[in-house]
Amino acid sequence: MSRRILSLLVAVALVAFGASFAVGAVVFDGGGPDGVNGFNITQGYWISADDFILSQPTTITDVHFWVLGYPTPPSGGFSWSVYADSYDANKVMYKPGALVGSGSALNIVATPTGNYPIGMTEYMISFDLNNPLALNASWYWLALQSSSPLFWETTGAGTGQDAVQSIQTSPYDWNKISNVDEDNHNLAFQLTSTPVPIPGAVWLLGSGIVGLIGLKRRMRK
Length: 221
Fold this sequence. Notes:
alpha+beta; 2 domains; 2 helices; 18% helix
């Protein structure tokens, strides 16, 4: 009987440990690629950005997006920036405002999708933010640049404001992509967050461990 109780407590503790971390989730889905167009993110020449909204406080840890490039896999690095939302009354458009956070990409993975839209090779790019970014519930903009010649692919499923683009200047002179192109005007990307501890499951794990210790002492007596 004691062995059955011990086995049960071990199982409870293991389940609690496994459940003590939530699965990393997509916290924003801007839609997948449509194969229609792409906008230049080549560092030193262009920067492109698209908006996203968070419904609750979130720590962004990973970026996933689709690009169009050349047969050789993308080499080099990426830089990212997140801006607050702002409104430009002169241009009558929403655009990136105050800088919230920026950095470089870590653990970059470039995966060919097997698609070749508009005569270019499509890749899905995933990377970790070098500094996970804690954000409040609000509207933001994600801007990307690549050290390789790449084009951030458009999506037909995008929502929110039209994506924007700027020549590499200081400060950036953002303009709507829809002002320069008649195809889809949103960019394909997703944002994810790493697992975070669930307090209730952590408490359950602790209870299971305490139970194991108590039972072991009783069995020794």
